[in-house]
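Final report, closing paragraph on structural work. Over the funding period we assembled a curated collection of sequence-structure pairs, and we close with a single example.
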Amino acid sequence: MTKAQMADRRRWIIVALVFVAIVLNYVDRQIIALLKPTLQAEFDWSDRDYSHMASAFQFAAALAFLGTGWFIDRVGLRWGFALGVGIWSLAGMAHAFATTVSGFIASRAILGAAESIGTPAAVKTAATYFTPRERTIALGIGNTAPNVGAIITPLAIPAIAIAFGWQATFLLAGGLGLLWVVAWLSFRIPPAPGAESAMRPAKIAWRSLLTDRRQWAIIVAKALTDQVWWFLLFFMPDLFHRMFGLSQGTLGLPVAAVYVLAALGAIIGGYLPARLMDRGHSLNFSRKITMLIYAMIILPVPLVLLTDNAWVAALILGIALFAHQGFSVNVFGITTDIFAARIVGSAIGIGAFAGNLSGMAMIEFAGWSLETGRGYAPMLFVCAGSYLVALLAVHLVLPRIVAVDDGPKDEDAIVIGH
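Its predicted structure, as stored:
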């Protein structure tokens, strides 16, 4: 095996490590949604209490995203990612010792803040170790990780909770995260040709980012679409419990089925634009036509309200998250297209900040809607239209997507803008 072949294989090991980290990230954050019926009965939570816990996670993550992208760009991918995973793993384990609403809220807030490192770290990994053409494929593989976590969690967590108690689920997931930190720090590879500057600390001109229309395209796209993901992540188990009478022990399979379809969307979302570009289409056309397809696919999601069969509902929701993930991969891809690798962590971090704030608003809206008897209809109709609006906004802000050169512009400053 040549040195080039060995280096190529080692790059995919990095992808595998990032994949595992994001899987654990989603296991940690989804456990509380699956244990909601049990914990709600044990601690006498209301729907508003639960919404406040989920919102604490979202708000802490949103605020942290303003700093974690900068932190990854400034400190470096290797140590920055390790520190984030270590803290979120300990915060996840702390849930096992919480006995009050405020205790859970505090644990969720720390978990959310630390887990915000995952998105900018994953995107920066793609920008650092892969060529522009390969990045969407790497991002597509990485973007299946949330779905794999969301598949594993409903299948494993209820069974572990029934067998060993709900506290054991938090302790096990957190412990696996600490083992991951050891593996991550034990592995090193060089960056892809042309991306060496991504390994050096970057001086980020935040004012320049926030006055750059490219950044606002990412902000708007993330705000309009992330709210859908967060709403379904935290409320889908409750939807199956409330609408179809499924217990904690039986709702795992349909929830897992939804995320199987979502994982397929993440894979295909990265594959389709790459194929279009191979056939001679422009970057702009390939990204936007792919996003339009996914925006159309999600439109029928309110049909969930018309079925009395949990598996039909799982199919409808699965197709919706299939579309979400395909769309999301391309939002991440656009970010790596239009920003240099040295600052891509900051750019996606700012976008994720907006996405988490919109997710928090959607979660609070869901708690209000359920508690006032309006059910899930308002949220599902918002989900249906968000992606077409997001694509329109991206097109208006970026009529033509143009890839930037990843090379350093200046050793002392990053120049943002056209």
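The CA atoms of residues 260 and 301 lie 17 Å apart. Residues 3-186+199-397 form a domain with the Growth Hormone; Chain: A; fold (CATH 1.20.1250.20). We thank the funder for supporting this effort.
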